[in-house]
Amino acid sequence: MNELFQTRLQQHLRRMLRYLRLVFNDHFVIALMFFVGGLGLAYSNWLKTLGPQQTWIVWVLGLLLWAGLSVSHIATLLEPADTVFLLPRERDVHAYFVKAWRYSWWLAQAVQVIFVGLTVPLLMIVDQMTGWSLLALLITQLALKDAQLTLSVTHLYQVKPSMKRWLRPPELGRCVRHVGSGTISDAVVECRNGHRDCGGTTLFAPTNLVDHGDCLA
Predict the structure, then answer these.
(1) What does the DSSP 8-state code read for residue 125?
(2) How far apart are CA 190 and CA 200, in angstroms?
């Protein structure tokens, strides 16, 4: 399953690179450079007009950071046909999901670091935040995104709702037990005596498989 994910990831990256070459042509890159430069200059000049009395900006930044958590999702790179062709490898799908989660995690956290970095000048001027406070903000933002991605990947498993909040992708393989007819569609999973004592196989639901097949990080 690791080889399958690596193959699909390479195909995905090649496809994205081909599209980016079409979008970021010479003329668009030059125009984008002027736009980003002008935007940065305007942002720098605007910062000079701000002061600690404009506390409303802190609330706006909080909303923007919260909205920024919705950027980037789990990229499973699954195909609708996987509900059929991966059925014999059902027990090994968990390793595939772990790879997908780790790949998506790094990309998503990089985006959050950029978001927080853009708000640092404003927070230092308006809220007069210190370096430790900014570090705490960054850690909080990363932790929230980590929790969001973890909840997203647990929805790919048929796990009791009460257990999803406690499980991370590497632990799901130990905490899901398969009982029933042996097919994905009829699978019922359960975890007894807490997630540390459970062992078994990983399962995924066909409906979730299709919904997440085209997700991009």
Answers:
(1) I
(2) 10
- pLDDT tens sequence for the chain (217 residues): 778 888 999 999 999 999 988 888 888 889 999 999 999 999 989 988 888 878 888 899 999 999 999 888 888 888 888 878 887 777 788 888 888 899 999 999 999 999 999 999 988 888 888 889 999 999 999 999 999 998 888 877 765 555 555 555 555 555 443 333 333 333 333 333 333 333 333 344 433 443 333 333 4
**Token pair 């909303």: residue:** 63
Tell me the pTM: 0.68
Q: List, in order, residues 6 or more apart from 163 with CB less than 8 Å away.
A: 175, 191, 195
CA-CA distances (angstroms) from residue 2 to 92, 147, 151, 210?
A: 9, 24, 22, 20
Which residues does 215 contact at the CB level (< 8 Å), separation at least 6?
A: 73, 74, 75, 76
How many CB atoms are closer than 10 A to CB 112?
Answer: 21
Mapping DSSP to helix (H, G, I), strand (E, B) and coil, where does residue 114 land? helix
Helix (H), strand (E), coil (C) string for 61-91: HHHHHHHHCCCCCCCCCCCCCHHHHCHHHHH
Classify 113 as helix, strand or coil.
helix
